[in-house]
Amino acid sequence: MTTSVRSNFQFHPYHLVSPSPWPLYTSISLCNLGLTSALSMHNFYNSYILWYISLVWVVVSMSLWFRDIIAEGKSKLNSIGNSYYYNLNIAKKISSSEMEKAKEIYNATNDLTIFMNNNNLGYYLAGLLEGDGHISLPSLGITSLNRILNPRIVFTSHINNIGMYLFLQSELGNMGRFQKSDENVLRYIIGDKESMIKIIYLIHGKLRTPKNKRFNDFIQFMNDKYHLNIPESSLDNSSFGDNSWLAGFAEADGHFGIKYVERKGKSDTRKRSVSESVSLKFRLDQRSFDKSTLSSMEPFMQGLALFLNANLKSYVVNNSKVLSIGVESIKNHSIIMDYFNKYHLIGNKLNDFKKWKIVYHMILSKEHLTEEGRLKIRNLLNK
User: What is the predicted pLDDT for the residue at 96?
Assistant: First the structure.
């Protein structure tokens, strides 16, 4: 086993890397080097030979020490995905009273019959996982406790979405737990054997993006550890309009934009007056490459753009290419309306869609051109 491969194994349950012998060896060799240097200065017989041996020992032990440090730096345990897995342990637990209050508010304001069957729920969860989810696969190395750590499925969202995730938890039979970090980040974590197997069967064959490769690695891990025989999950190539997958994906990465431009007259700095206008836009952005699988997202995004009758564009953020789908034509907005009226959103994006829907009908009826209509739109935006 090479050093780089060995460093990806967690031999100790509470540390990322194994204890190293090289600091001790380096200390002993430095002590010998100092001793033989003193003997050489006092002209002890053949002490210079011992001095050279000690020097070589120092160089070798330090070289091996630095070799392990470099290997540990490149190891998967220090990658973004796996460091994310270990950082979950320092997140804060959400109090039961806080969750109960959020659940009451959510139940009072939302339709709780949205998922009439597990198939619909499975597609929604698949879309949500591919947008805001992460499958954490620990190293396959056996720890000193003679066990292999479990993988985890983690959904990440804003803390304001806790009501939605509590509803999903109840739909899933109260599986999983919640954690909060940075005051605003919510994590819904599923990590026990029975729950993960249930999730696998629920979303099996329903994923559309390169994350399906990671999902199959997850299935293989579970098969190997628990002696299961779950088949690989194939990519879903059905129409986006046939199920609730896009609703879950939009809940994670969709944006319902309402743009209101006030009228501005000519001025010393403005040569032309600006007319008052109202416009709508639905937007979906994704990185051009999926980090966990290093696969291109472009084929998937092209297919989604085709369904929405929109163009696929790109831009660069922090030296990273981002693919963007924007639906701006009022004619193509009917596709958005028809889909989300059939397959409902259940989180914070639902409120955004409701406002977007109101403005959409106002534009169709030309109500946005009246002073009363514009006032209504401004009030909506200020809520």
Answer: 83
Q: What value, to the nearest 5°, has the Cα angle with vertex 16 and ends 15 and 19?
A: 65
3-state secondary structure of 178: strand
Q: Are the beta carbons of 156 and 176 closer than 8 angstroms?
A: no
Looking at per-residue pLDDT, the higher value among 223 and 14 belongs to 223
Predicted confidence at residue 234, as pLDDT, reads 96
Cα separations in angstroms, 374 against 236, 241, 291, 338: 43, 33, 44, 25
Type of residue at 337: M
User: Cα–Cα distance between 156 and 343 in angstroms, integer?
Assistant: 22
Q: From the centroid of its chain, how far is CA 375?
A: 39
Burial class (CB in 10 A: 0-12, 13-18, 19+), 226: exposed
Model's pTM, two decimal places?
0.73
Q: What share of the chain is helix, strand, coil (3-state, %, to 5)?
A: 50, 15, 30
Right CATH for 243-382 from 3.90.70.10, 3.30.365.10, 3.10.28.10, 2.160.10.10: 3.10.28.10
What tokens were used for 373?
């209509």
Higher-pLDDT residue of 73, 264 = 264
Q: How many CB atoms lie within 10 A of CB 296?
A: 13
Please give the full DSSP string across 95-133, using - where no structure is assigned: PHHHHHHHHHHHHHHS-TT---SHHHHHHHHHHHHHHHE
> What fold is seen in the domain 18-74?
Helix Hairpins (1.10.287)
Nearest to 69 by CA among 37, 23, 137: 23
Map 298-337 to HEC letters. HHHHHHHHHHCCCCEEEEEECCEEEEEEEECCCCCHHHHH
Where along the chain do its domains lie? 18-74, 81-226, 243-382
Q: pLDDT tens for residues 48-73?
A: 788 888 888 888 888 888 887 777 66
pLDDT reading at 11 higher than 80: no
Fold of 81-226: Endonuclease I-creI (3.10.28)
CB-CB contact of 152 with 190 (8 Å) = yes
